[in-house]
Amino acid sequence: MEIFTTVKELSNCLKSHKNEGKSIGFVPTMGALHKGHLSLLETARKENTITVSSIFVNPLQFNDKNDLEKYPRTLEGDIHLLKSAKCDVVFIPSVKEVYPVSEISEEGKAGSNPGLDLGTLDKVMEGKYRPGHFQGVCTVVKRLFDIVKPDNAYFGEKDFQQLAVIKHMVKILGLRVTIRSCPTLRESDGLAMSSRNVLLSPDQRRNASLIFKTLQEVSKKIKKLPPDDLQKWVKEKIDVNPFLQLEYFEIVDPETLLPVISFADKKNLRACIAVKAGAVRLIDNISL
Ligand code: AMP
After folding, report:
1. Ligand 1 first shell, C-beta below 6 A
2. Which of 17, 53, 207, 226 could connect to 243 by a Cys-Cys bridge, CB 3.0–4.6 Å?
3. Of 37, 80, 133, 168, which one is the catalytic site residue?
4. How far apart are CA 127 and CA 164, in angstroms?
């Protein structure tokens, strides 16, 4: 496995692979890797000649400085995991390498970049609670795509809104990359694997399994209760737990991400949830 920290060295390496006609599958991550990340890599390995992963904690997508500081960083372990998953190339750039000085301010905000028109995709759910988050995600993913020039890029359904935003960005900018979505990997009690799970106390961790259990119950109740009542039911179910607090629960159209008013005639709806366990935000979603 080759490890690069500069754009120049990475580009040279990937250029020679491209010249040999090899396809490139790309898995961008923020590190603190777990089996969910590795499942993306495994799919990328099956579908491409060369797999490239990146580890970069993107300051632009953190609206909360504390969250950025506390984000788990386990670089040595990550490199070990990527090696054992037979990743070919890893890119671990510094902030300056990804963002030339003029493009990011001291506070970690994008400089003069006016941002992309994401329509309502970045106004709902996560967008409401994390202003600027998806613009930050788009900035870094576009930059990484420009550097890596992948044929295929792999993203998890765990971050369903992010997936919708990236597909939209690729479409409006006409980028020549295929976005592949991969299913959510879960712990044995159903909790979606996440880098943030290590930040949970033992009590919070035990109780966090209620999030997926609630989503499963929602899928059974969807025929019996209208969206409004289901929303109230979820709020009560989560908030009664002393370790958890509901931020939002929405049943949305999978493309527009807008909440549905009635369940009639809609297919492939997504139930999306965000819950706080102390200071840790957990998100999850299922297809209904
Ligand atoms: P992150 O390091 O959190 O930015 O995640 C990198 C990629 O891994 C994103 O495309 C995530 O959606 C994906 N991912 C994170 N957790 C999981 C999971 N439990 N199952 C599948 N993919 C995941």
Report:
1. 29-30, 36-37, 39-40, 155-156, 158-159, 182, 184-185, 192-195
2. 207
3. 37
4. 12
Give the integer Cα–Cα distance in Å for 19 and 22. 7
Catalytic residue at 133?
A: no
Contacts of 62 (CB under 8 A, 6+ apart): 68, 71, 108, 133, 136
Q: Which residue has the tokens 């993306």?
A: 40
DSSP-derived pairing of the beta strands 24-29 and 152-156: parallel
**CA atoms lying within 13 Å on the CB side of residue 262:** 2
Question: pLDDT tens, 146-178?
Answer: 999 999 999 999 999 999 999 999 999 999 999
78-91 per-position pLDDT tens digit: 999 999 999 999 99
DSSP 118-143: -TTTTTSTHHHHSTTHHHHHHHHHHH
The b/e string for 150-164 (b: 16+ C-beta within 10 A; e otherwise) is: bbbbbbbbbbbbbbb
**Residue with token string 């929303």:** 231
Measure 179 CA to ligand 1 centroid, in angstroms. Answer: 14
3-state secondary structure of 172: helix
Helix, coil or strand: residue 182: strand
**Cα angle 138, 148, 103; round to 5:** 45
